[in-house]
Specification:
Blueprint: H1 10-20, H2 25-31, H3 36-44, H4 51-57, H5 64-74, H6 79-86, H7 90-97, H8 106-116
Helix pairs in contact: 2-3, 6-7
């Protein structure tokens, strides 16, 4: 299945790690003695993730829902577009991506697989 084979970039790992630890970009920036805009650029992949930051986020554990969210974002699709194209309600997709609802919808997984093909 596509989501289990998904390899995350350092930028994606950084954003996911920050969100899991309930930190704002500013709080993370303060922790690593960086500016908030630097963290933002790292998360967007505009600049490389600093080595000391990459080491901390390297082993982040990623749920299926988070993988779906990352894959959807890679293809620049909004939740609204995903909902329209899959027939799954936008709120349900959001809950699945945040791990609040299980299992991840089969139609959503099929849609992501086609998107990545």
């Amino acid at each position: 299945m596509i989501i289990t084979r998904l390899v995350l970039t350092d930028a994606e790992k950084l954003r996911l790690w920050r969100k899991k630890n309930k930190l704002t970009q500013k709080e993370l920036a303060d922790r690593f003695k960086r500016h908030q805009t630097t963290i933002s650029k790292m998360e967007k992949g505009l600049i490389p993730v600093a080595e000391n930051v990459a080491q901390i986020v390297a082993d982040v554990v990623v749920s299926d829902g988070a993988r779906c969210s990352i894959l959807r974002r890679r293809y620049k699709k909004t939740l609204a577009e995903a909902a329209q194209e899959t027939g799954v309600h936008e709120n349900m997709l959001s809950e699945m991506e945040r791990g609040l609802r299980r299992p991840v919808s089969e139609s959503y997984l099929i849609w992501l697989t086609k998107l990545a093909a």
